Amino acid sequence: MPAAALLSDRVDLARVPADVLGLCERLRSHGKRAWIVGGCVRDLLLDREVSDWDVATDARPDALLQIFPRAMPTGIAHGTITVVKDGRHYEVTTLRGEGTYSDGRHPDWVKFVDDITADLARRDFTVNAIALDPLDGRILDPFGGRADLDKGLLRAVGDPLQRFAEDGLRPLRAARFVASLDLTLDKATEDAISPTLDTYRKVASERVRDEWMKTMKAPAPSRAFEVMRRTGLLQVTCPELLEGVGVTQNKWHAYDVWRHGMECMDACPPDPILRVAALLHDVGKPRTRAWSEKVGDVTFYDHDRVGAEIAEPIAARLRFSNDDRSRIVSLVRFHLFHYSVDWTDAAVRRWIRRVGPDRVEDLYALNEADVRAKGHDFEPDLEALARLKAHAARVLAEGAALSTRDLKINGHDLMQALDVSPGRIVGEILDALLDAVTNDPVKNEHDALLACAREYLARRGG
Ligand code: ATP
Ligand code: MG
After folding, report:
1. Model confidence, pTM
2. For residue 158, what are the β-bridge partners?
3. Which CATH architecture has domain 3-146?
4. Which residue's alpha carbon is nearest to atom 2 within ligand 1?
5. CA-to-CA distance for 298 and 309, rounded, in angstroms?
């Protein structure tokens, strides 16, 4: 923690982009005041990379539009414009206090104010309610955000119960900041989440998904998901995941199903969709857990298939795009594989075809995380994974046919040579040829394929 920056009441303005200082300067030349506010000040104080710069000003919206005539009026009703400089976007917002919230999502009215402290008071957490004066680098911190950053504490501005009852996104942002900024949630702030879940229930699924996506970029997203589990947020959004809490596993695992999912997600590279898949990969385990006399241990037969069936509606509910949904579901479906020395080249080709060539790299990453998340004795599994990677790389380098497009014959040739008419049968023959070539690549040659197709038709009786 950069204690020096937190204890000083000034920030070195050399760390603020010239464009941002220029915006503030322009407002000042029109007799207005300006401050740099919110997440960017917090990130500056933490010595973290700043993703977006926000400016607050006492200029009212109509004045803003005059001072920046080319700006986009992105949220002008709430006093926000977006100024674009060299392709970068900066939000400039009129100082405002907010009115009551009756829908748990938007304030019923917005009141423009002249006092920066009133503007900071409507912000969610003390660490997000710090302003920086671009004239002299002085910090304005009426709610003790710097002291909280120094203590590693995330605390609501004002009464947490009231703040969470106003806007249901805030508790989810709290969970995210715990993970992404490595903070501890202040007790009163955490205690305010459960009693205000009714407000959280009103948050649009898209916004929940966006928070999950941002959370997944944290070093250890499990810190956020533990907050969500403890407070009831996860019970609202994804109760299926809670089925794994306390579900003990077999001798290969050190952790229960829930904790294993957490460890697996954290062990994945910070690709948000991959991590969502990791979070869900064993969601089918609680419903498939059984005792096997034969094995002398618990088993989870079919948990990959059942898990994919559970993951699909979860991904739909969270409004993931079709591509993301299909990636999540197929990773859950195919996460389970145990490579061994008796896998032939044909077995490797069949595996690649089954999971889809585009999913192979994802599955390697997920498998490595899955293996590490068992909690013990993972070296042999990692070695097996390394051998599968090498074997698959060799098979792919040999130009294995993985889709019917890779066959040395196409549907048109087949229809002519075999005198069949267009229809489902053509696809059926191509699939049979691909199966044949997967087992024996030498057959991927025009005449051999044609012979194969004739045999197939004869066998099929068509
Ligand atoms: P990041 O950009 O890293 O996600 P941030 O804190 O900058 O984090 P933004 O969504 O960019 O988040 O919002 C900018 C600022 O606006 C916040 O720092 C906070 O002061 C305020 N803010 C954002 N969302 C809310 C909210 N739901 N309730 C109250 N204040 C909010
Ligand atoms: Mg921001």
Report:
1. 0.93
2. none
3. 2-Layer Sandwich (3.30)
4. 39
5. 22
